[in-house]
Amino acid sequence: MSGVPTAAGEQWQTPKLPGPPYFGAPNGPNAIVEGETGPTAARAPEPYPPKETGEDASAPGSEPFNLSDIDVRVYPDELKRQGSDWFAIFTPAAGETTQTDSGAVALKRNLDVIRVHTLIHESIVCCVRFSADGRFLATGCNRTAQIYHTRCGAKVCILTHDDSHKSGDLYIRSVSFSPDGNYLATGAEDNKIRIWHIATRRIAGTFEGHTQEISALDWSKDGRLIVSGSGDRTARIWDTHDQNNNKILTTTIHAGENVDIGITSVCISPNGRLVAVGSIDNIVHIWDAQTGTLVERLKGHTNSVFSVAFTPDGTGLVSGSLDKTLKYWDLHPILSGTGPSGAVAKDGANGKEASGGEKGSLCTMDFVGHEHYVLSVAVSPDGRWVVSGSKDKGVRFWDAKSAVAQCMLQGHRNSVISIDMSPAGSVFATGSGDWQARIWSYSAQ
Fold this sequence. Notes:
Elements: E1 80-82, E2 87-90, E3 92-99, E4 105-109, E5 111-120, E6 127-130, E7 136-140, E8 144-149, E9 155-160, E10 172-177, E11 183-188, E12 193-197, E13 202-207, E14 214-219, E15 225-230, E16 234-239, E17 247-250, E18 263-268, E19 274-279, E20 284-288, E21 294-299, E22 305-310, E23 316-321, E24 325-330, H1 332-336, E25 356-357, E26 362-368, E27 374-379, E28 385-390, E29 394-399, E30 405-410, E31 416-421, E32 427-432, E33 436-444
C-alpha cells in the first residue's frame, strides 16, 4: 500500500466506552460477546483460561485427539508454547518422535504459533482484515476503523465515522481493502458502506440501499465488485465502475420476526465468479456474481452460518456455524455444471440425506472440536490450513485436508469475533470482544 501517513505526531484521544452486552446472536443466548466494562488488558491475566461452565462443552461427534480435554500445565513442553497471557497446545504428529541429547524421546508437531502484537482498542473489535500485500491490517470498532502496520504493529491511520446523525454507538461491523491498497470499504450499523481514500482519510464515496446494519463486506480481487451483507436479509453486489449494474441478492430466511441479523457473512471467490453468503437460516447461498442468479444452496448446518471463506483455488468453501462446527464444501459440481438439479445427494452407506447442495455440491469434511459457536473462519493462502475463532475464546488451526485440529490457541478474554489470514502468508489476525486485536505468526514444522 502506498501513501499511508505515519502516526508520528498524531494526537488521538477517544473516551472509554463500555462494550455492548450483545453482538447479534441469532438462534442463541444474547451473548456472543459477554458483558464487558473495559479493556481486559487492564486485568490481571489468568494463567489458564477456564472452560465455560453450565454448558454443553462438546459438539456432536468426537475427535481422535481432543485438544479441549488437555491440561496445559502437565502437557509435554515440546507440544505447547506459552506467553505471558496466552498459550497454544499442539496435536502430536502421527507416529513422529525425536531423540534428545539426554536420550529422552520427544514428540514432534506440525505447526508453531506465536503472538507478535497486541493492539488495544477503545471498544469491541468487530472485524479484522489484511491488505492484499499483507503489509497492513484494518480493524473495525465503535465509530472508527483503524489501520496498523503488520510488521511493527504501529497504528498508521484512523478513519472516524463522525458524519452520522446516529447518536450513541456506531459499530463498524466489516472492513475490506481495495486490491491496490489505496481504499478501505467499511460497513456500519447506520446501513451505509463508506469507501475511504486512505492517504487523505476522506470518504471517496458511499453505497446506500441497505435498510439495516451492514454485517459483512468483501472486495473482488480485480477491484470492480464489492459485496455486502446486511441485517435486512439481502446481499448486494456493487459495481464500482457502473452504478447501474448493481444487484440485490435476496434470500428467503425463515427465522422469526425478532431476529436482528439476516446475512451474517459474504465472500467473493478468487476468480470473482461466485458470491457465497452465510445466513441465519443455517444455509450457505451461492450466487453467480455476474448475473445475480442463485446457483447453489448448501444445507447441513443445524444453526446459523456465521462465516464463509473460499479456498485459494476457488473449488471449495469453508463455513463456520453456531452449531459449533465447520464444514468443507466441494464446489466442483456447480463449477463444472455437472451436478444434478434440485436434489440433495444421499449417503450411500445408510440412505440418509447427506449434507450437500441442491446442485450436487457435497460437504466432504466436518471440523469438530470447538466448545461454543464458531464465529469466524479463514483459509491460508496455500490452502494447507483452516483457522477458526469461537465464542469459546479460542482459535483452532485445522489441517485442511483431514479436518484434524493441529493447534488450540487461547489468549483472548472474550469471543474471537473475527479472524483473517494474511495473503502474504505466515501471519494471521484475530479480533475479540475483549477490546483487542492480535497479530500472530505461524510456521509449519
